[in-house]
Amino acid sequence: ESVEPLFNEQKERGKTKARTEPKPVPAIEEQTVDHSKQEAYRVRIVWKNVIFCSILHLKAIYGIYLIFTSAKIQTIVWGFLMYQAGILGITAGAHRLWSHGAYKAKWPLKLILIILNSSAFQNSVFEWVRDHRAHHKFSDTDGDPHNSQRGFFFSHVGWLLCRKHPDVMRKGSRIDIKDLEDDSLVQFQKRHFLKMVTLFCFIIPTVVPVYCWEETWKNAWYVAIVRYAFVLNIIWLVNSGAHRWGQRPYDKFIKATENAGLSFLSLGEGWHNYHHVFPWDYRTAELGKFQTNPTTAFIDFFAKIGWAYDLKTVPLSLIRKRANRTGTRKNNHEGEVWGW
Ligand code: ST9
Ligand code: ZN
Ligand code: ZN
């Protein structure tokens, strides 16, 4: 039955000898790429993104001025809370839950996370996770969307301002994203992405200060913009700074580093050397919960009320063994905070 169309097509083309079996498709790994026929890679800038990103940052600078001169204290506190919420939507949602499956979540928690995630406006979870899985699988090569070998600027934001390297698509096509295709909330967000980010990233953050404590529209809008630009840059720093500055106690042969300052700002995602070595650990770090890893505390809270479960960790013995084999520090780190 399934080979019918093939027969017909071949007959139409006047071929007499019809094949009885379809030609086996080579496994993706076997599909060799003829590099001599590939066009040389050329950076193609996406000007729309350059303009959007520049305007956003210029407005954010003006917003910082308004914060210091005329915004109400409640609006600033609100902006701070929205920053924390947006980061959690990325760290606990797109990153630890959807990219790595480091824990499982019941639907009320997933709903919270998809809303928080939309408030951060960082591409849909679907796109974010696909890029992030490529980042782990092909770290710091051309298959990594934000390949840090191409410099600080490229891995920070440059990669969002130009077309992707063909290796991202070619190698990325091997990445399994079936779980995302089956996740109805992820698909819902993908379908309604623009509506969701307009509501949660821009409308709600602006309207709340105006209606709740009579902030001016201008101040409310600009504080929302500052918060958005801030969240973007903190998360981008994980790709740029945390592949450059800091220690490598677990694996000195990779670029990812431990960066305490960034962990503080990103609610626990700066322990990046650990994370690249043990990506399935829901803590994305060996130690530290409250000061430098509030995302872990957030997930633990939901585990307590039963909305998060199957939290995956790595046994200390395995961490030590690996650190001793490939890390920069040897033995005796009992009670010591790694990476400081
Ligand atoms: C934003 C995202 O900011 C930031 C992500 C940050 C990631 C941080 C990671 C942190 C690491 C760990 C810590 C986590 C937590 C950190 C917390 C810290 C607080 N695989 O993309 P397209 C294929 S967004 C497989 O259009 P172009 C696919 O077929 C800010 N296939 O490529 C796709 O078609 P479709 C707002 C892939 O045309 C097709 O290629 N957003 C993959 O080169 C085309 O894909 C923006 O400013 C893959 N990985 O354009 C820019 N990728 O999608 C939004 C692609 O239909 N983006 N394919 O399946 C864009 O405008 C464009 O994507 C582009 C590239 C211009 C950048
Ligand atoms: Zn990384
Ligand atoms: Zn990751």
Structure notes:
By secondary structure, the protein is mostly helical. It has helices spanning about 5-10, 45-70, 75-100, 105-120, 125-135, 150-155, 165-170, 180, 185-190, 195-215, 215-240, 260-265, 270-275, 295-305, 315-325; strands at about 105, 310. Strands 1-2 form a two-stranded antiparallel ribbon. Helix 3 (about 75-100) packs across helix 5 and helix 10 packs across helix 11 (about 215-240). The chain is built from 15 helices and two strands. The longest helix has 27 residues, at about 75-100. Residues about 1-25, about 25-35 and about 330-340 have low confidence and may be disordered. Bound molecules: stearoyl-coenzyme A and zinc ion (2 copies). One zinc ion (ZN) binds near residues 135, 243, 256 and 276. One zinc ion (ZN) binds near residues 135 and 256.
N→C terminal distance: 64 Å
The helix content is 55-70%
Strand order of the largest sheet: 1-2
SS content category: mainly alpha
Radius of gyration: 23 Å
Q: What percent strand?
A: under 5%
Q: Counting H and I runs of at least 4 residues, what is the number of helices?
A: 15
- How many strand units? 2
Average per-residue pLDDT, rounded, comes to 88
Profile the largest sheet. Answer: 2 strands, antiparallel
Order of helices and strands: HHHEHHHHHHHHHHHEH
Uncertain segments of ≥5 residues (pLDDT<50)?
1-23, 25-33, 331-340
* Heterogens: stearoyl-coenzyme A, zinc ion
Q: What's the overall geometry?
A: globular
